[in-house]
Amino acid sequence: MIATVLYFVFLRSAVVEGALNPWAEGSASGGDCFCEAFLPNSTFPIGQLISLENTAVEINYKLELEISKVEMYEVKLQVYIAKITNLTVLIELMERDPDSYNELQLEEVKIQIKQVEALIVELKASIQTSSTVLISIRQQISVVIAVLTELEITYDKNLVLVTRREYIILQQKLEECERRHDELFNPDIGICTHSGIRRISKPIISQLNADLTSSYAYGGWGKDSKPMPGSENMYWYSASSDTTVNRIIQYSDYYKLIMRQPFKIHSLYVQYNYDRRGTGNNYVVRENTMYYQFRSPFAMAKWNMTSATIEYKVVPEASTQFSYHYSANQNLDFAGDESGLWVTYATAESKGKLVLGRINEESFEVEEVWQTSIFKPSVGNTFMVCGVLYATRSVDSKTEEIFYTFDTRTEQESYVSIPFEKFQEFYAYLDYNPTDQKLYMFNNGYYVAYHVWFNHEGSLTGE
User: Fold this and answer.
1) Residue 223, φ and ψ in degrees, nearest 5
2) What confidence tens digit (pLDDT) does each residue in 150-206 have?
3) Within the chain, which residues score under 50 in pLDDT?
């Protein structure tokens, strides 16, 4: 649509002897009709919008294809499971009484084993292809929504909204497809049967934050790591132009997050001479409670978003001198994983080396502490998975690396190299969520996420 302002100027200009003569109808000489169009400096790119809508049709076709593949995988997997079960029973019988089976029968069993192995290889290849396609679709949708966000800011919001809704619907369909894919081939979400992280996906960029400004470089977003019944789809977001924590915003689902339609905004400003604010972008939400670093006094705090009550506890020996590499005031960093609630910090006694503490969620006390060997200011960020601490560091402007792990169960530390791509060079927030096995990053005002794959020895998805 081109915004046009039309000015119709009707001039009756035949002047006879100083008097204005009437303009004779149909007379070309008795007057002139001027139609002037004043166009704005920039016109709405309707062609771009049509192109985006065509892209939506293409993406929808791809998604429908992937959904049908997942349905086919479900059927195939049931067949494979039945074959493997029958084969296992047969082999057990043969082991109990090997003399009852001749060479021909043994050869037949070997053939069945090879057939099952071939089926597993085929399914594994299909899974990897589908995972790659889903990641590609998500990236494509994220880029388009970023373009739509820019158009919405610059041009007619109502025109953009229709196309935006189409892409939000596609995002929801993609989320459902990914969920079914994960449940089918990664059924152990929430269960720690793996031996650690194997790899991290490409960054999945949702869009610019709810405040639509990259100046809000400090912040975080994600899901509740231990959601209350009925709030499993809830997302939260908090950000600011500095490291002060003033508020947290809740969204009922991903669609509402992208559409910037919150259902609750919690203010942590000073009220009744009581300062509820925090500092640092190191918070986590667990059981509808926000855990964050209290501003004054220096302590860990919990804001119950159901009852709107607050509590804080001083962490013995925790120091304000040691923050992460990317951001100031990251003195207490909270994490919630499959096995509980955690906090990392450094002390004067540890000379800046990272200390990990397990928090008792009922008493809100640090009940157990582990000392690591890594210097906190050299660390980009940390997160917890199944009781294991993972620490990251910068490789270059485009690459981050998980370089260190500490297992609280065995008290063993190790140095590893698991690189992953950064959306932009500096980021303020990185945390793992056990409900969907994703990493959530807040990167220069953008919502960024990553899929996490684990080592599963003997599994269909293992490499």
Assistant:
1) -120, 165
2) 776 666 566 566 566 666 677 776 776 766 666 665 656 778 888 999 999 888 888
3) 1-29, 37-41, 458-463
Order of strands, edge to edge, in the sheet holding 218-223? 218-223, 235-240, 247-251, 264-267
Could you tell me where the DSSP H helices lie in 155-267?
A: 157-185, 254-258
Bridge partners of residue 205, in order along the sequence: 448
Distance CA 149, CA 396 (A): 29
CA distance 253 to 179: 14
Do 368 and 359 contact (CB within 8 A), yes or no?
no
- Do 390 and 384 form a contact (C-beta atoms < 8 A)? yes
In angstroms, what CA-CA distances link 38 with 7, 9, 137? 8, 13, 41
For 155-231, where are the alpha helices, taking DSSP H only?
157-185
Per the structure block, which two tokens stand in for 326? 């990317």
DSSP SS3 for 68: helix
Asked if residue 32 and residue 13 are part of one domain, the reply reads yes
CB atoms under 10 Å from CB of 25, counted, come to 7
Query: In sequence order, which ranges of 186-278 are alpha helices (DSSP H)?
Result: 254-258
Task: Enter the DSSP assignment of 318.
Answer: B
461 in a domain, yes or no? no
* 179 and 198 share one domain: no
3-state secondary structure of 381: strand
Alpha-carbon distance of 82 to 88, in angstroms, equals: 10
Q: Which of 144, 162, 184 is the last residue of a domain?
A: 184
- What's the number of domains the chain is made of? 3
Domain assignment present for 459: no
Q: Judge whether 386 lies within some domain.
A: yes
Residues 165, 145 share a domain = yes
User: Residue 151: which domain range?
Assistant: 46-184
The pTM assigned to this predicted structure is 0.68
Cβ-contact 303, 289 below 8 angstroms = yes
pLDDT in tens, 257-266: 888 899 999 9
Please indicate, yes or no, if residue 448 is contained in any of the structural domains.
yes
Same domain, 368 and 280: yes
Quick count: other Cβ atoms within 10 Å of Cβ 249? 20
> Residue 216 maps to which CATH number?
2.120.10
Asked if residue 62 and residue 14 are part of one domain, the reply reads no
